[in-house]
Amino acid sequence: MKNIFPIVICMLFIACQKQVPYKPEAIDLNNRAVSLMESNPNEAIRLLDSAHMLDSTYLLPLQNKVNLYIKSKKYEDANVAIDQMISQLESPEIWQMKGMLLFKTNNNEAAMDAIQNSLQLYRDQLNNGQSNNKYASQYQIGICLLLLSDYEEGIQLIEKYGKMAQQPKLKLDSINHYAQDIP
Description:
Elements: H1 4-16, H2 24-36, H3 41-54, H4 60-71, H5 75-88, H6 92-104, H7 108-127, H8 134-147, H9 151-161, H10 172-175
Helix pairs in contact: 1-6, 2-3, 3-4, 4-5, 5-6, 6-7, 7-8, 8-9
């Protein structure tokens, strides 16, 4: 389960990315940074910052920065980068990611608030017809409910919509520790 957090982050972020043309230079800087994440994390952060400064609509460098900080257990830095993302894009996926990170750092009250924001945004998207994938949104609502300790409804939604949303099946014995699996 330790590897599920990066997978969930990628799924969440892919879902919230807008399909707009980004500056090729920013994409190149981001790609170079990704190749340096293991060998030279400080240079990777510098390149990710440069990529985002070059094209502030391109949020993938911020997401990669969050992933790098989490992997390095620099949770406060990861939280700052998530807040940067939220300031640019109010999305349920980013709020959910923030909540999971706050749970990891034992900031449970703030985590519950972030997950509550995520839940409300998912519901608003569904009610307003703005969800690109209703099944995935229902599945993510189930995840939010689990994180908010509403296990019965959360499990029902995950089981009902997981396959339709093409999401990986969660093992029920690991659901209680879902947010604790950040490295």
